Amino acid sequence: xxxxxxxxxxxxxxxxxxxxxxxxxxxxxxxxxxxxxxxxxxxxxxxxxxxxxxxxxxxxxxxxxxxxxxxxxxxxxxxxxxxxxxxxxxxxxxxxxxxxxxxxxxxxxxxxxxxxxxxxxxxxxxxxxxxxxxxxxxxxxxxxxxxxxxxxxxxxxxxxxxxxxxxxxxxxxxxxxxxxxxxxxxxxxxxxxxxxxxxxxxxxxxxxxxxxxxxxxxxxxxxxxxxxxxxxxxxxxxxxxxxxxxxxxxxx
Length: 252
Description:
Helix content is 77%, strand content 0%. The chain has one domain (51-247). It is mostly helical and 252 residues long. The longest helix has 28 residues, at 37-64. The chain has 11 helices and no strands. The relative contact order is 0.10. It is flat.
């Protein structure tokens, strides 16, 4: 009777070791995902979308890079050289110009890092998740600036799509005699339009990122990008085309 507890403990230990062996064998086995032909095509399409998107994000961002530093330089020049200009507004604009310059320059390393780690989603979502955590005083400036970049991208896309409807004769009727260029081929036009729309949606997610990093919310906004493209780009371009046809019909 005295050795009975020791025997029970030894038996329990043997059972635990016996039950743990199948578990260790199961864990050590590598998990092999079943082959799916569409998974590879989806990754290739996502990579192509990311490459085109980062090119146009950098192109549109590169054009706008000079604006915040220019504002800061003009304000600094006004503070030093023009004594008749009010100093307080110039100081505020100078600080805003410097802050927006820092925010804007973060676009290039953030999108590059997002391109390298596209494990969880598209480049725009990764860029929003990887964007810096700005101080509270800079968050409104960051949001306003990315909204401006979004509107600038939409303007470029609408202008491109509207110009595809125009002919050299139409430019001549409007008084732009120097415009004698042929319209872009449909493939190049659609590629540029897709890149500008992708850049606009990326800037929109970057405008939301200073206040929330909720990935489900970002994915929900990203899922609405096609509706946003139709409302913000295709509809204004179609209205411009219809208005131009009506104007040409009645006045030319």
